[in-house]
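so i finally got all the pieces together for this one. its two components total, 435 residues if u count the protein bits. some of the lines might not be protein, just check the labels. i wanna see the whole assembly predicted at once instead of chain by chain like last time, that was a mess tbh
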Amino acid sequence: MAIKINVPTPMRQHTGGKAEVAATGATVRAALDDLGRQFPGIADRLFEKPGQLRRFVNVYLNDEDIRYLENLNTAVKDGDELAIIPAVAGG
Amino acid sequence: MDPSLERYSRQMRFYGVGEEGQRRLLHSHVTLCGCGALGTVLANSLVRAGVGHLRLVDRDFIETSNLQRQVLFDEHDVAENLPKAEAAARKLGAINSSVYVEPVVTDIDHTNIVELVKDADLILDGTDNFEIRYLINDTAVKLNKPWVYGGCLGSHGQTMTILPGQTPCLRCVFEAAPAPGEAGTCETAGVLGPIVNLIASLQAIEAIKILTGRLDQVNRDLLYFDVWDNVQKRIRIAPLLGKVDCPCCRRRRFEWLEGEQGSHTTSLCGRNAVQVAHRAATTLDFERMAEQLEALGDVSYNRFLLRFQAEGHEFTVFPDGRAIIKGTNDVDKARTLYARYIGH
C-alpha cells in the first residue's frame, strides 16, 4: 500500500525539510517503519521503543485517532493519509 | 431594546446569541489563565463581547519582543515595566468599562488554582506550557467546569474544547507533554501573530457558545492548522472518551492538582529565562531590597516589580518573591543565582 505521511515541523530536519513523504506498508506500524527506513533519525522521535509511540506524539489516519481504531495495527489502504501531530505547547 | 445593551446590538442581532444570550454573557464569569499572545486576543474578544467578570491571571511582565503578537500591549507598557495582567486590565477598562476586569499577577500552581477558578463558569487557556495545562485540566475535570485549550508554535496551532464528562479531556488526547527540546519552543521555532489570532479567535467563539448556554454548538473535534503550509485538520476525538484509560477523567487521579507533578522553577518558553518561585508566602519590601542591592548598580522598582542586573543576568522580582532571571535556560543555575541575590 502506498500512503502519504504528513511530517510535523519539528521532525522535518530528518526528512530534508519535506512536509509530506510517501511510504508503503499494510498497517500504520509498517508505514511508520518504512518512514524510519527512508529517513534515519525520525524513528527515535516517534517511538519510545519499538512498537510504542512516544506519549506526546499522536498519529491520525485520515483524521481519525489510531487509538480508537486498532492503534499501530490499523490497516491502511492505497491513498490513505497518515498525520503525525505532536502536542503544541506554546501560546 | 434595553439602551444599556446598545453596544452589543450587532452581536445580539446574530440569531445564535439574541438578547437572552447577551444577558447570559453579561452575567458570566471567566478565568483566563495567561495573558500573553493567546491571552490578549482572548481577553480583547471577551471584554468586547460583554462578559460580566474577567479574571486575568499572568505571572509575567511585558517586553519589546511581545509586541509583535500580544495585541493589548504597546511601547508605553514596556517603558513602564508593567506586568501583563495589569497593563491588559488598563486597556480593557478603556475598551469596555462595564466589564469587571480583575488582574491577578501570580504564577498559577496547584496551591492557588482552585481559588482562582472556583467561581468561574469557564476557564480559558492563554498559557504557553503543558505543565499548567495539565493543572488546568485536572482542576476543570475535578470541579466539572468547561475549559478551552489552545496552543501555537511557529506557524501551527491547535485547539480543543473540554466539557468534563461529555468530551475527552486534554490527557485523553495528549497523554504526556513533549520533553524539553522535543517539540520546539517559541524561542527556537518562533511564532507568527496570525496563527495566534486564529487559534485564540476559535477559543473565543467556543467561550461565547458555552457562556450563552449553547453547548449543542460546541466544537467537539481537535482542530489543527498550519497557516504557512496551508494545512487544516479536524480530528475526530469524541470516540476517545471512555476508550483510553485516562488517569484524569476516567480514574480521577489528579496528579497535577495534588502537586505530585509539576515544578515551581521552570524555563520560560521562548525567553532564555528561568522563573524561580518562592514556595512560602511572602511579601517583599522593595524599598529595603533596593537599598541592599544598590551596590550592584542600577536597581529600579515600581508597585509591581523590582529589577536589577548581576553577573550579566537581568533579575525581575515580584512582590510574592517570585523572580524571572534572564540570560539562562539552566534551572539549577537560576536557583543558585536566586539564592545568591534574593535569598532562600
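The domain at 2-86 of chain A is CATH 3.10.20.30 (Ubiquitin-like (UB roll)).
Residues 10 and 90 of chain A are 13 Å apart (CA to CA).
anyway lmk what u think
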